[in-house]
Amino acid sequence: MKFQQLQDDAVKQRIKTIEISSAIDVLNREVDDSEYFIEALESKYRSLENSLNTREFLKALPLDYCPECLNQLLEHHDEKSCRLCKQETSDKLGITQAKRMQLEIKFQIDESSKLLKLKKEKLERLRLEFTSNTAVLNDLQKKVNDAVKNVQSFKEEALDRLHYEQGLAEGEILQYRTMLEQAEIYSRLLQTKANLDADISKLNSFINTIKNQQARTKEEVIQKIQQEGVYLLNHDLERQKEFANADAKDLILDFSNNLVYLKSSDAAKFKQYQKFSASSNFYLKVSARFAIFLASLTVDKMRYPRFIFADNMEDKGIEEKRAQNLQKILINRLNELKVNDYQLIYTTSYATDELLNSQYIIGEYYTKDNHSLKNID
Q1: Domain total for the chain?
Q2: pTM over 0.70
Q3: What CATH number does the domain containing 264 carry?
Q4: pLDDT for 201-232, tens place per residue?
């Protein structure tokens, strides 16, 4: 009877152990599927974010001239239609749908992450339970093997005493096994914490490296823009002595406030920056814009398109010779750079004879005798 009981207990324990092992396998597959699903959702979320950023960027580039015939587009007051093709557009609807999809995906990611965490915790408990039940199964199997081999009889007193001692030993084993399970959980948690601390340290180091690289790149770009801007100021006609004597460090570009100015050497007199005539201020702003464009041709890390459209370049009473000198400076500077992957469109009423006969002129040059509008009765 005792042997049969031991054998039945061993069979039940083996079935239980197999069930736990099967549950661990199933849960492992579910964890892998959940991680792959979350990764796919995050990829889709990033794609939507990139799509929104691209759409927002392109929205800020209105077309005033037809890209085919270069004629100015007529004013179109219907905000729901495209200025170029006159077809109905719905940018707000597309952006709203994309953001709604982002919110839905973010909700799915959060919910899936919570479920994944619960599955991993359950998997950890099952592994500990599997270890414990495997030990119990081994003990039962050993007792079954001993019962099969032991065919000798013992005296009743000795048998009772051994049973008593065995019960005590099994109680101690169970107590130590419980303590061991807790110790294993604690050890694994310590290892998990150590791994997380190492990951945090690596990520912080990576972030700091990227920040330092960005700071160096920003400083490099600003210095290059200042150099190009001062080059244009130094080669201006002798209309503003501050331009001729300016250093790169004196040219300040305040991107957040859309300002450009020269620092004054006499801070007490001018407080912050020097003030010039309307034409010189216009030349200073134009120099800053072209400085950004020229810097983008030599600094590969600049996230700025190598394109500039310079219209209305004879503003604020700037004299003809000064405007023509700027054209000459720009052409000479671009020839020095010897790069071809850029585009500069420059409109002017002050084109020199040398420029009119050069390869840089596109289209007709309109004068009082050559009007842009022809065949008008």
Answers
A1: 2
A2: no
A3: 3.40.50
A4: 999 999 999 999 989 999 999 999 999 999 99
